[in-house]
Design goal:
- By secondary structure, the protein is of the alpha+beta class.
- Mean pLDDT is 75; it is low at 598-610, 647-678 and 763-809.
Length: 846
């Protein structure tokens, strides 16, 4: 028994701890019902304080509620103390037995004593019984405490008190919560000797700063003075209103007093601009109603600079990259230009990205080729102006305004006279004489009536209007006439596009309504379409006149109308979704791409004889492809007509057998007539098919003589053409459709192989042919054939499909397979008539 005494002692210690925890649980469960009224009253008192109730109550109601809360709290405390009963050990033991699920109260049996003076055997038996009980009670649990609030608060009023506490904490915030709670114990007792003064004071920053007002008072009294000075922008206005007093208060700013005004003899008002000062006070007699340290911040002037040197773009525009900033917002941006040999100054406005932005980082393109100073050196200074009119200039740079080069002789002469008016505006006589001489030879400008009238109007204006304003007007007129002679409608389309771009950029910057943005988007789309059309027509006109295209930058990219349309759609979608800054960036990128597109830009070429022969071969191959397609279409139509003739032989057998026999004989006669006609047409088509095969053979011979390897596709095309010729010769156009389709596909495969070889033979990489991307060819390589600004070849009959952007190579291959399958099925006579008619309608557009 001595060896088991420590285990028995340990079991008793564990049981004792469980009973102690059970007594604590019972105490907790009895505490909440007893003191719930006191805790509820305390929380309600705090709720009223956080919600600012005490500061707005009158004196008598304030003190009455505080007294009522005090009495209620005392009564609730007395009620809680009286109701709270300390739990007994027996209660704790019973709690443990119930929580552990024990029956027959074994804990009570564990504490029982052996009665009388038993013998050793009885004591041993009793000790063994006690040990078994202790071992059985090793897993006792006191259970979890339960508050019992559900029974004490059956209506759930505790939730209302907790919600009010949350609302009060959010409303008061961390700064005002202590003061609002202290208001419950601040009893403002009005006295006759000291009137109650209600002061409201705040500082309104200028509207352009976008800053919120700074309130200096709260609930009719001054806030405690902050440790740091209150920062206010210069030009802010102090507003103050004092009521409840008869004596006029005084505003003191650094010791200088300003009395309040009283418009109605019941209150006193004051407003004052703050431009300096540090110590702000409002005094009433000998009392200081409020004192605040302030710091007036001056409005710093804006800053602006050019981030890179202005540089000309391919189309003659000047690229200006700049950035500007201001503490409260920029009102205006401009470029100030001044001639190096004169004192006259002009300004060019720059767009703002939004209303009064604080920071600006933009790139702008300015077309100054029409400016009278084009070709002259000027000094450019960026200018920024903030919302209060402060101006600042960036560092000046000297640039030469790009000057457009005219090829038309009369246009060059007009621009020369225009320049003379710029350099020496007072010497008009030589210009008048030169303009008169130009009008005497109208054939020099192809008798253009509009140009003739424009030149005469400019000459008359210089003769009759001697004012200084006449010279700029005449210069503008001469420029328009020169553009008409040089470009036709291209320049006007370009100006319309720039105006549409600027209007849309301005609308996005000022957050215009969505309907206006949509309208300007549509106008820009139409202006861009007109410009690209005019650009294409100009390139074609130059090509027809034999004019050599301009040299392209080796890194230039071919810009297609699909690319521009997708960018416009993306910008429109961004604007609709509210991302107007992203829409502006998209439009700026598109504008930069258009500015990089040279006028009359086409792919480069050289004049080597070998290259010209290759171009002729490609044109010849394109003609063979087109004619082969036409022959296949004709064969398909002839086969359809033949099948319809055979349809007349078919009839249903029945009661009208004689009539069916007659219709069958008529159908047979029709078939014979059609067969004879088809044989005549088949002979002609067979001969034409043979002629195409011979033309392909001659093309293969020339290509082999130039050092190229004859593509395998041309060999397959030759064999398929021969099969088609034989079928047409037999008067079976249906049998010729399949070989003709195979010949067409083989020709296309051979054309691709031929173009790749041409690219390699002329210094290009594999896969670069005559219609490849010109941006991938170096200056020393044989140049590609000419392209219009949309990347389409000019003056070539061959188009391998590369000038058209397709969605995906797999989609293209799949469409070809479907088209070939339709052609194959259309020639199968065993298919039902309704199916063949449907296939015929599908293939009609091809």
């Amino acid at each position: 028994m001595t060896e088991q005494a420590p285990d028995e002692h340990k079991s008793h210690a564990i049981i004792g701890r469980r009973i102690g925890l059970a007594r604590a649980n019972l105490l907790w469960e009895r505490f909440w019902p007893a003191f719930a009224p006191l805790i509820g009253l305390a929380l309600l008192f705090v709720d009223l304080g956080l919600l600012g109730t005490w500061s707005i109550l009158p004196f008598w109601l304030h003190i009455g509620l505080v007294a009522l809360f005090a009495i209620g709290a005392a009564a609730a405390l007395w009620y809680g103390v009286r109701r709270l009963a300390w739990p007994h050990r027996v209660e704790a033991m019973r709690r443990v037995e119930q929580a552990s699920g024990l029956k027959h109260r074994p804990l009570t049996g564990l504490e029982d004593q052996l009665a009388g003076n038993p013998d050793p055997a009885a004591r041993a038996l009793w000790a063994a019984h006690q040990r078994r009980l202790a071992a059985a009670l090793s897993r006792l649990t006191p259970g979890w405490p339960q508050s019992g609030l559900t029974q004490a608060d059956a209506y759930g009023l505790r939730a209302v008190v907790v919600c009010l506490l949350f609302v009060g904490l959010v409303s008061a915030g961390r700064d005002e919560a202590p003061e609002r709670l202290a208001d419950a114990f601040r009893l403002r007792v009005p006295t006759a000797a000291e009137p109650v003064a209600v002061l409201d004071a705040w500082i309104n920053p200028p509207a352009y700063t976008g800053l919120a007002p700074v309130f200096l008072t709260r609930d009719g009294a001054a806030k405690p003075a902050p440790a740091e000075a209150i920062l206010v922008p210069t030009g802010s206005t102090l507003f103050a209103r004092l009521s409840g007093v008869k004596e006029a208060p005084v505003l003191e700013l650094d010791g200088q007093g300003t009395p309040f005004a009283s418009p109605d003899n019941r209150s006193f008002l004051l407003d004052r601009k703050l431009t300096d000062g540090h110590d702000l006070r409002i005094r009433l007699g000998s009392r200081t109603l409020g004192q605040w340290p302030i710091a007036v911040l001056p409005d710093a002037p804006p800053q602006i600079r050019l981030t890179e040197t202005p540089k000309p773009m391919p189309k003659g525009t000047l690229k200006f990259a700049y950035e500007a900033s201001d503490d409260y917002g920029i009102k205006r941006l401009a470029l100030e230009i001044k001639r190096t040999d004169a004192d006259k100054i002009e300004q060019i406005e720059l767009p703002l990205p939004g209303r009064s932005p604080k920071t600006v980082k933009e790139t702008n393109f300015q077309d100054l080729t029409a400016h009278p100073w084009a070709g002259l050196d000027v000094v450019v200074r960026p200018l920024a102006e903030d919302v209060i009119g402060q101006q600042a200039y960036g560092d000046p740079v000297t640039v030469t305004i790009p000057e457009r080069t005219f090829s038309h002789p009369v246009a060059r002469a007009l621009i020369e006279q225009r320049r003379k008016l710029t350099l020496k505006p007072a010497e008009r006589r030589p210009v008048i004489t030169a303009l008169g001489a130009i009008t005497l030879i109208p054939e020099a400008y192809d008798g253009d009536v509009t140009a003739h009238l424009g030149i005469r109007a400019a000459r008359a204006r210089l003769q009759r209007d001697l004012s200084d304003e006449a010279v700029p007007a005449v210069q503008d007129l001469l420029w328009d006439v020169a553009l008409r002679l040089e470009d036709g409608g291209l320049s006007q389309a370009e100006r319309d596009l720039r105006q549409a771009q600027q209007a849309l950029q301005d609308a996005l910057a000022r957050n215009a309504p969505d309907d206006e943005i949509e309208r300007l988007m549509a106008e820009m789309q139409r202006a861009m379409d007109r410009y690209l059309q005019a650009l294409t027509e100009d390139a074609l006109k130059r090509a027809e006149n034999g004019e050599q295209p301009q040299e392209l930058d080796p890194n230039a990219q071919v810009l297609t109308s699909d690319d521009l349309r997708k960018m416009m759609d993306k910008a429109r979608e961004l604007a609709r979704n509210g991302a107007r800054d992203a829409a502006r960036d998209m439009l700026a990128q598109m504008q930069q791409m258009l500015e990089s597109l040279k006028r009359g830009q086409v792919a480069r070429q050289n004049g080597q004889q070998g290259r010209s022969q290759m171009q002729r071969d490609m044109s010849e191959l394109g003609e063979i492809l087109r004619r082969q397609q036409e022959l296949m279409d004709q064969s398909f139509r002839d086969s359809r007509q033949g099948q319809q003739g055979q349809q007349g032989q078919r009839g249903q057998r029945g009661q009208q057998g004689q009539q069916q026999g007659q219709r069958g004989q008529q159908g047979q006669q029709g078939q014979q007539g059609q067969g004879q006609q088809g044989q005549g047409q088949g002979g002609e088509q067979s001969a034409e098919q043979e002629a195409l095969r011979r033309r392909l053979g001659e093309l293969m011979r020339r290509f082999g003589e130039q050092g190229g390897n004859i593509p395998d596709g041309f060999g397959r095309a030759d064999r398929s053409m021969r099969d088609a010729r034989d079928a047409l010769g037999r008067g079976e156009p249906g049998d010729a459709v399949g070989p003709q389709g195979e010949a067409l596909q083989a020709l296309r495969d051979g054309a691709r192989s031929m173009m790749e070889q041409m690219g390699q033979m002329n210094g290009g990489e594999p896969g670069e042919g005559l219609s490849g991307d010109p941006s991938q060819q170096g200056p020393g390589r044989a140049q590609a054939e000419r392209f219009d600004p949309l990347g389409r070849p000019i003056g070539s009959d061959w188009d391998d499909g590369r000038s058209t952007k397709v969605p995906d190579a797999q989609d293209l291959q799949r469409s070809r397979e479907i088209l070939d399958e339709l052609f194959r099925r259309s020639g199968e006579a065993f298919r039902p008539l309704i199916e063949r008619d449907y296939i015929d309608r599908l293939l009609k557009r091809f």
